[in-house]
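Q: Okay, next protein. This is Putative oxidoreductase from Actinacidiphila reveromycinica. I've checked the sequence twice, so it should be correct. Can you predict the 3D structure?
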Amino acid sequence: MSPYDPNTPLRTAVVGTGSIARGAHLPALATLAAEGAVRIVAVADVAEEAARAAAEEFAVADALTDLDTLLARARPDLVVLCTPPSLHREQAIAAVRAGAHVWCEKPPCPSLADYDAVTAAADPAPGSPATSFVFQHRFGSGARHVRRLLRAGAFGRPLVAHCQTTWYRDAAYYAVPWRGRWETEGGGPAMGHGIHQTDLLLDLMGPWREVRAMAARLVHDVQTEDVSTAQVRFAGGAVATVVNSVLSPDEVSRIRIDCERATIELTHLYGYRNADWRITPAPGVPAATAAAWNDFGPDEPSSHLAQLRALVADIRTGVLHPTSGEGGRRVVEFTAALYKSAFTDATVRAGEIGPGDPFYAAMHGGAPDRLPVDAREEDQPA
């Protein structure tokens, strides 16, 4: 049973008041606050001016500069972490131990070891405070509709899939000190950009079995990769490609799944609506069936607000949110496997990376300089 009174707004605090907090989290919280579902009781940022500016913009009473003071003074039911990935482990554990649920921005943690430590810090009893992660693409109406049909077997077996996150980021983007560094971001576009699309692919396709990948640093003066590709085999036998890039001027996010009876396509950039999905039936599928497949119902765009509504409902009913625990771990494990395969030139299988494996403790496997600096250098004649 949930300890939360359904008629009392969840006391909510935001830690980190940068662009993702002010552009996505705080507006979503403000919407739910207007509906009486939450109350924003405090914000915190190491930069006092940033915290005060966010508090003023969103009419929050308390602006602080550290998490410990926030937890003691505001006593939140829910803490929203919008801080760099290297801080997520320590902050999430502190908040959960103080009795607060946590909703944490991506990338979840810089390593599988960090992720498992966050999960282990939560009391396993139903309804106890736990950490969940921002994977908002699972929560739009389009994904719900397609997931339901896939689970019901309406399309037949999934056979071939493609997952593409090809974006563009310039040098100014990487001027932010924590970006592009293994220690603070945990990885490049496979970790910090494509992880949303990859998470949605895994959510739709089911468990993955093995991955074979390549990664390179072709343009940016950073530690991590700026492009990666992977071949994936799923437990059901389907095969897929996953491409992540920050080198692509024509930006797009895309998922395509070819099944026995239909092709499912999603094309968007940072978020989708129902109109961004298309289901093409195979020859012989009745027109009425195809029409029903393409009737997505009321449109709920993928967004932080869509996931936050689901999260608040789960907290109130004492249900573990789908992006907590194993539900969030699978994409972190997949990303670790992608890096291990790219850096070792070997196929990596699900469940292979655990304590004692260097890629469990760090996405670079303990050798941050392992990645080729520039593939063009290898192609030059002697």
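A: Here is a summary of the prediction. The chain has a mean pLDDT of 95. The longest strand covers residues 247-259.
Q: Noted. On to the next one.
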